[in-house]
Design brief:
Blueprint: E1 2-7, H1 12-15, H2 29-42, E2 49-52, H3 56-69, E3 73-75, H4 95-101, H5 114-131, E4 136-141, H6 143-153, H7 158-163, E5 171-175
Parallel strand pairs: 1-4, 2-3, 2-4
Antiparallel strand pairs: 1-5
Helix pairs in contact: 2-3, 5-6
Protein name: phosphoglycerate mutase (2,3-diphosphoglycerate-dependent)
Keywords: Glycolysis, Isomerase
GO molecular function: phosphoglycerate mutase activity
Amino acid sequence: MTIYVTRHGQTAWNEQNMVCGATDIALSSAGKRQAEELALKIKDKPIDLVFSSPLVRAAETAEILCRSLQLKAVPDCRLAEQNYGIFEGAKRDDPGFLKARGQFAHRFPKGESTLQLAQRVYSFLDELGREYSGKNILLVCHNYTARVIRSYFVDMDNEEFFSYRLEHCAFEEYTV
């Protein structure tokens, strides 16, 4: 089985260096262009299934990619971005956000912890392994979700984990 992972295209909040998290923000025009460019790059990949975060920025990206692949995306809430609670809409360099972000088991106030994110993403990946063995699957998700997916397949220490970043519409591949 091969798992392909991409992050949604840019949003206005990404362009303004704001925390999106679980807030439903649409793609910007730049984000739509990024998704169209990625669609051209992957149109000949042997992808059998596409799963997407239900958040609109990922769903829009998946829709653009699926037109090229002639597939339909299946939304799954376990691929949604981490809920950053009170920091949704804050600047990414907010000291409170930066401090809380580095705590794996600490829940963001009115949000979720990275541990909770990892639990739901790992359960999704375990299910893929059981139910879709031998298939090639594209996951359209978010930066922190992609970070957790990477940690499922690649051993990472804390520094590697917290510094890892998947750029908008970048594309990674994991063979299981």
